[in-house]
Here is the input.
Amino acid sequence: MTVTTRHESETKTVLPPGLTRRDMLALWGGIAFSALFTGLIWLVGGRLDNIELLPDSGMAWYYWQLPEPNFWSQATAWGFYLGHQLSIWGLIYYAQSVKKLRYTNGLHKVNVMALAANAFFITLHLVQTHIWYDGLAQDVSIFTSQGSVIVLLVWVLLMENNRRGLFFGKKAPISKEVMRFAKEYHGYFFAWATIYTFWYHPMVSTSGHLIGVFYTFLLMLQGSLFYTRAHVNRWWTFALEFMVLIHGTLVAVMQGNGIWPMFFFGFAGIFVITQMHGLGLPLRVKSILLAIFAGLVLLVYSDRGWAQMNEVIRIPIIDYVLVFVLAGIFWVGLKITEKVRAHRQVIRA
Here is the structure.
């Protein structure tokens, strides 16, 4: 029996006793696959230890790339990346524009196809790394990979504005046109940011890479479950956002550069300002979480030095400013598109 409310994303299905939703089975199965495959990367990673790499030359240098790339290392990296990218884009277009799917508690056939495609290219990338090693890093800047993920995270903040607000549950004044565009086309950008970043790196087994690739697997899993209820489950989507805090903090600790508090408190700040307000938590719980955050800030910076407390606000300020920049870009693009269409109609008339 299906009960439909006035919002499409609120469509719910009551299943017979003993049956489990197929979309949730796929979600948990995908998480298990992601964990096991990350373990496989670690298990076989020792085979790559004998590859000689150039010395690290700073923040703009990506260390894990061959000193002398060859045709096949680049052809396989770019060729397999394009195959992966175009296949997922094609499935999104098919689901959205051809089949015009709606949300379900089960799985559409296209979800199964997307899950299979991602599993295939994940396996292919491991094989490619162990034969040719290189990813896309030889030809493009590391900042393109990092920037794509930053925009993805900012896009999520924008897209969730109507549901949870942007500042302590309060919505930012962003037009309905912009919100509609952000939701309708986010899948294409998210798929690009995730798959591009995935093929940017070889599948090496350093701790930082393993954490990052596991997170990337989960993002690809989320992207495969479009038009299912699992895709919009607030606890699952929150977990994906929250993992940025874990990933960023752990990588900073492993690098030993002493800036881990900027990542920890920066992303924790976004949690208490924005993310926790979409979880349906009672005010008492949110107050406790905010107090814990403030207490940890005071504890760490009483030792670290009060002059360093600007680290706490760096990431939130950048992200919230970028939300409005991104919304502005969408708004300008939509207005230009509207004027071009109007001009064409005048010419045809």
Q: What stands out?
A: Residues 238 and 324 are 21 Å apart (CA to CA). The two ends are 50 Å apart (CA to CA). The first helix runs from residue 22 to 44. The chain has eleven helices and two strands.
